[in-house]
Amino acid sequence: KAGVTQTPRYLIKTRGQQVTLSCSPISGHRSVSWYQQTPGQGLQFLFEYFSETQRNKGNFPGRFSGRQFSNSRSEMNVSTLELGDSALYLCASSLAGEGDGYTFGSGTRLTVV
Amino acid sequence: AQSVTQLDSQVPVFEEAPVELRCNYSSSVSVYLFWYVQYPNQGLQLLLKYLSGSTLVESINGFEAEFNKSQTSFHLRKPSVHISDTAEYFCAVGSGTYKYIFGTGTRLKVLA
C-alpha cells in the first residue's frame, strides 16, 4: 500500500512569507504527527492529530499551526517565516498513536531566504 | 522529563565486522522504544520497536536491540554489517503522550 506522502518535496520561501505543507497518511491511519529536523536541534516534535483533534503540541511558537481533515490528511502552516525555520519537515502516521510505531514520509525540505 | 542519549555521533566500522550503537533513555514512566534509520535525503524508516514482552527484538535485516530496564538502555547491534547499512540511526522513546523524543542520531559509516 502507499506510504506517507508529503508535498511538496522542496520549497524555497522568503522571510516574512507563509507556507503550507501537506501530508497524506497511510490509508487507515488516523494519527498524524509532524516533526522538524535540523542539523543543530535534531528531530523536534511539532504536533500530533487524531481524528481531527490535536492531542499534543511541541514547544514551538504560535506561528506554527496544523490541522487534520476528516479523511486524516493533515496540513501544517508556518506564518511569518524566519531564516531559522529552514529545515526538513517530516510527517508520520500510525493507526492510533505512538505504540503502533510511526511511518514517516520523505519530508518537505523548506529553505527560507 | 524524558530524554534520549546517543553518546556516539559517528561510528566507523569495517564491512562484516560487528557493531553496537548505544542508546540510553531517562523516563519516570513505562516507555516504548524505537530505532529508526535515515538514508540521505529520505525520511525515517522504522527498524524495530520494543513495546512489552521479550526484551530482545529483531529486525528483518539482521539488526537486534535489547531493552535493559535496570540500565535504561536500548542498544542496537548487528553481528556483521554491510556497506548498505551506512546511514544515520535514531533512537526514540514514547510514553503515552502521543510524541516521540528522539536522540541526536549516530552516523554509521561502513568501510570496505
Question: What distance separates the N and C termini of chain A?
Answer: 37 Å
Largest sheet of chain B: 6 strands, mixed
- Compute the gyration radius of chain B: what is it? 13 Å
First and last CA, distance of chain B: 41 Å
Mean pLDDT of chain B: 92
Largest interface: A-B, 24 and 23 residues
- Number of strand segments of chain A: 11
Q: Which of globular, elongated, flat, extended, rod-shaped describes the shape of chain A?
A: globular
Quote the beta fraction of chain B. Answer: over 45%
Helix content of chain B: under 10%
Structural class of chain A: mainly beta
SSE series of chain A: EEEEEEEEEEE
The backbone outline of chain B, from C-alpha atoms, is: globular
Description of the structure:
The complex is a heterodimer of chains A (113) and B (112). By secondary structure, chain A is mainly beta. Helix content of chain A is 0%, strand content 53%. Chain A has strands at residues 5-7, 10-13, 19-24, 31-38, 42-50, 53-57, 64-68, 74-78, 87-94, 103-104, 108-112. In chain A, strands 2, 4, 5, 6, 9, 10 and 11 form a 7-stranded mixed beta sheet that branches. A 4-stranded antiparallel beta sheet of chain A has the order 1-3-8-7, with no helix packed on it. In chain A, β5 (42-50) and β6 form a beta hairpin. The radius of gyration of chain A is 13 Å and the shape is globular. The mean pLDDT of chain A is 95. Chain B is an all-beta fold and 112 residues long. Helices cover 0% and strands 53% of the residues of chain B. Chain B contains no helices and 12 strands. Chain B has strands at 3-5, 10-14, 19-21, 24-26, 32-38, 44-50, 56-58, 64-68, 73-78, 87-94, 100-102, 106-111. In chain B, the strands form 3 sheets. In chain B, strands 2, 5, 6, 10, 11 and 12 form a 6-stranded mixed beta sheet that branches. In chain B, a hairpin with a 5-residue loop joins β7 and β8. Chain B is globular, with a radius of gyration of 13 Å. Classes of the chains: A mainly beta (113), B mainly beta (112). The A-B interface holds A 4, 31, 33, 35, 42-43, 45, 48, 50, 55-56, 58, 90, 92, 97-99, 101-107 and B 32, 34, 36, 41-46, 49, 51, 90, 94, 96-105.
